[in-house]
Amino acid sequence: MSNQRGSLMMSVLASGVLGVGIVLGSMWLLQETPDLDANGTEVSVEYGRALIRETSVLMGPNHEDPSMRFSGSNLDCSSCHLDSGTKPGTLSLLGASSRYPRFSGRDGVEGDLLDRINGCMERSMNGTMLSRDSAELRSMAAYIESLGDQFAAMGATRREANEPEAFNEPPRAANPEAGQLVYEQRCQVCHGDDGLGLQATLDIREGYLFPPLWGPDSFNDGAGMHRVLTAANFIKARMPLGQPDLTDDQAFDVAAYINSKERPHMENLEVDYPDRATKPVDGPYGPYVDSFPIEQHRIGPFGPIREFYRNLE
Ligand code: HEC
Ligand code: HEC
Fold first, then answer.
1. In CATH, what number is assigned to the domain containing residue 113?
2. Domain, as residue range, for 245
3. Pocket test residue of 55, 80, 90 for ligand 1, highest count of atoms within 8 A of CB
4. Per-residue model confidence (pLDDT) at position 146
5. Disulfide-capable partner of 105 in 47, 187, 211, 278 (CB 3.0 to 4.6 Å)?
6. Same domain assignment for residues 243 and 191
7. Are the beta carbons of 77 and 175 closer than 8 angstroms?
């Protein structure tokens, strides 16, 4: 083949490729443009569902790509928001999106659903906030919003939470020693005699079959689950998994036991609740407006603390 013929063929080929390119390109423009973030990752409900179910695998602290290590623990969002948030009842994410934007006493400002997810990222997951334009944060929000639509379309029976009667706070301080017995009899079989849970496989990146309740890979001390009343509410409604039958006393005591154990510390907790009078009675870290000892904020009795704040109003 002479050089001339060769270059002629090349230019015919090239213009052919160009032509096909133009046709394909305009077809692509006619289709819906995918919503990509700055890293080229697509925002989608499916990705959001996967992130909530397999948080450890997709953005855990041991992810092979360091830029994807957003969570600081190998918990999944669904360790607390059961069935990826689709189970009606305590900590369900069905209908959650309709509550935002709303004022957060903890942050002292109004926040939207993205801010609320980031709250769990920094505290429950002991990780870092996701950028507001990231596909990860926007996909999780899109998924939670899609649950809201699903919830609105559900019949009354499917919306019903199949849970025991809600936790009713006993009028006394919780007793962590009594809680230890409950733990040994009802929780240890899954969560382990050291509270560190059971990994799904030998590779920690795969997350847990039974998540840890304390220790270095658990939620941090700024998390909602670190409040004894929040934990007791969840435990009474959901644990032992598949057989939630604890009494109020047992749920209260075991919640105090779990939260008496070591866990990661979050920095700057003292700036939470800029209006300190809005701090929940079981806020387990200071400073407080009142002068009750910190131990009473951790395990109660909460009656006298509530009384103090009622008189402030
Ligand atoms: C250790 C348990 C735990 C884990 C893990 C966890 N959360 Fe949460 N989440 C909570 C608790 C507790 C609350 C409610 C706190 C409160 O306001 O009492 C909450 C609240 C929320 C809310 C607000 C719900 C509403 O109805 O207002 C959203 C949204 C949410 N979490 C998303 C997530 C996402 C997404 C993840 C994973 C990145 C996650 N959470 C991981 C415990 C957890
Ligand atoms: C049959 C096994 C089983 C038993 C028994 C059990 N749990 Fe769980 N627990 C789980 C699983 C599994 C999860 C994560 C939810 C999921 O994957 O659906 C979980 C999640 C939790 C969580 C939130 C996630 C975390 O790591 O902090 C708490 C708190 C908890 N359990 C406390 C308890 C307490 C307290 C008891 C005893 C009263 C108990 N569990 C008994 C299996 C169990």
1. 1.10.760.10
2. 176-312
3. 80
4. 97
5. 278
6. yes
7. no
